[in-house]
């Protein structure tokens, strides 16, 4: 997997997955799938330009937040679908609402590109984090997971997605 430094305004993450583009698309856009990897928070997409995107807090997130003494909103990420071309390209805005600092930053833009590659798929996630330095640090994986600061960012989420699609279980599972 490749990634860029968190100080960059555009971060690019690339991973190769032994799964057809249609399966990768489904794992990204279907809440039954996307709640099974990464931070295990279901994500909901209205897959049309102008459609709503949001992710809901999992029970694990609510419990962890309560233990740390801060509230966890029901909707932890929000945004809008800008483009949807299944199973090849999804462009959306994205804003993390769990943390007051990232919630105050402007929307960022995610571009998911899925192309066939050597018996599977190449998934490229481009995250434009212009004007959102706290979001940039979080999604780059620069924050310390062991200190409860957010964890491995997109690299970890995409690695977990790859593991789930290729083996049927996540990195933790």
TrEMBL record:
SUPFAM superfamilies: Bet v1-like. Residues 18-166 form the Activator of Hsp90 ATPase homologue 1/2-like C-terminal domain. Gene3D superfamilies: 3.30.530.20. It comes from the Bacteria. Pfam families: AHSA1. InterPro entries: ASHA1/2-like_C, START-like_dom_sf. Belongs to the AHA1 family. This is Transcriptional regulator. It comes from Goekera deserti.
